[in-house]
Amino acid sequence: MNAALKKHLSDLQTKALQASCLSEALNAVIDYREHHDIAVALLEKIHALADDLNNGLDIMSLSRAIEG
After folding, report:
1. Given this model, what pLDDT does residue 2 score?
2. Which of 29, 53, 57, 62 has the fewest beta carbons closer than 10 A?
3. For position 24, what pLDDT does the model report?
């Protein structure tokens, strides 16, 4: 595996871990009405990370990473 692809996949793995941590935080506050703003902010961040992951797994992004 070339270095560029390895870094690209490592970055995606880091983003997936961040999304997992954010979802755990969301789970901790979701049932508390007084934490509504926190829950909304966490959902927005999770959505942004999901977009990053989706874009990073796009065939063009992977092709660029493979080409280095």
Report:
1. 84
2. 57
3. 94
